[in-house]
Structure formats: structure tokens, C-alpha cells
Sequence to fold (228 residues):
Amino acid sequence: MSTTLEPVACCAPLSTAAMSDAEASATAELFRALGDPARVRIVNLVATSDESVCACELYEPLGLAQPTVSHHLKKLVDAGLLEREQRGKWAYFTLKRDAVEKLAAVADLKGVCC
Amino acid sequence: MSTTLEPVACCAPLSTAAMSDAEASATAELFRALGDPARVRIVNLVATSDESVCACELYEPLGLAQPTVSHHLKKLVDAGLLEREQRGKWAYFTLKRDAVEKLAAVADLKGVCC
DNA sequence: GACATGCATCGATGATCTTCGATATATTGA
DNA sequence: TCAATATATCGAAGATCATCGATGCATGTC
Fold:
């Protein structure tokens, strides 16, 4: 588990001049994390909740089985959009603040065409 | 199920209260359009170009065959992100202004967590 | 009209993704 | 220690996707 090495090209805004392949891939990966209705709903539910959201609160509103929700949650955490916190046997999720800024920055195209 | 006649559920911001299934799907669709490195690069190339971009200018920088680029361009146009203009036998593409605003609005999560 | 060129469409292939039942792992309570 | 519960992981099935060669359809040129 290297922690020190890894430039790992972070996602670049769509308006970046001379975007590299690695940046394009990282940016696409971030968007792809939100490219599923279930994951959009999860982010929406977490974003509009005052408190952190338990995984068990998601199965019913999403209408998906527990393993499926777990799968989507993992993808969102891996993408850096959600933060996972274990409380006893429950898993709670919150929006990751970095992600909010990153997403807005990446999606920003203003100044390019308007 | 549907209300009266549907407004064709446009994508809703991630911070929308009580997001519907249709809105979640539309939002996911928009993100999915940008969920591929090739499409991110296309949008980037078009966004950073002063003038509209010819399809033929994309094959080489993307390193993809002509049918593949055509496929990606169609997806971006369908998603409302690019606008297609035919000039003689050439196809030119520009950023669609609506998309710029829509994307920024959908990706906006500020005020929710920060 | 015949030919060349730019792009879209078709068809096939291999990869990736979503979904869920079954099962494993971890934590709590008795 | 044993049973119950919450979540993650595994494995499989079906769907979707990216890719490209071959081909069709326009448009422009001679």
C-alpha cells in the first residue's frame, strides 16, 4: 500500500488547456461515478439529509437489494464523493467536502463559452 | 404514475429536495455522457477551441478510428452538450450554451455541505 | 455521369456494469 | 460462547458499452 508515491493525475476541469490522457481518464471516472440513477439518488439523499445517512436507510427508497446498494456505496466512496464512517455494526455516509468542490470545478465551463 | 403530462423530467441538481426517479435518471444520463475519457477529451478540445471543431480534427488527437469518434460525438450531441453543424461534407461541433449552465447547476452541491 | 471524400450506420467482439442470491465477516447482546 | 443483525464479498446472469472494419449516404470535383 504505497502512500507516498502516486501523482495519480487528479481530474481536470473540462476547460483545462492541454488536458492529458490521465487527466481525461480521471475526470471521466468522476463523472462515471454519478452516471447511474441509483448513485445519483444516493448522493441526493445524503446531500439533503441533515445528518449522516445509514446504509440501512437506503434500501427501501432505492428499491434495491442490500448487496446492490453496498456496491453503489463502495463506488461512491472510491470516487471520493462519499465518506464512510463505521458506528458499531452500522455504516454511515456523508458527503465529502472535497468532492463538492472538485465536482463543481470539473464541471465548470463558464468563461469558455458564456 | 406520472403527474399530468410530463415535462420530460430534465436532470435535477444533486441537491434537489425530493428528487424523482425520472430526474435521477436524467441527471445520471448527463453525467454518463461525460463518463468516458474520449468524450471528456472531445468536450475539452471543443471547449478550448476558439472556433467550432471539425470531426476530422479529432481522430488523430484522440487516437481513435473514425466510426468510434462519430459514435462519441453522437452521444454528446444526444446529451445536449454539443451542437452539430453541417458545412458541406464536413461536420462542425461547438459547445451548447444550455449545457454549460445545466452541467454547472446539476453538479452544484454547495450550500448543502459547505 | 463518374469518382473522391467526409461522415454515419451496421454488425460483431470483447469488456464492463448492474443486479441479486448465497455466503462470509464483524459487531452486539444474551 | 452462541444467536442475531448489519454490511461486505463472491459468483453468475443479463444488459450495456466501446471499439473498429465494412459499407452506405451524402457532398463536392472533374
Q: What stands out?
A: Chain A is about 45% helix and 10% strand.
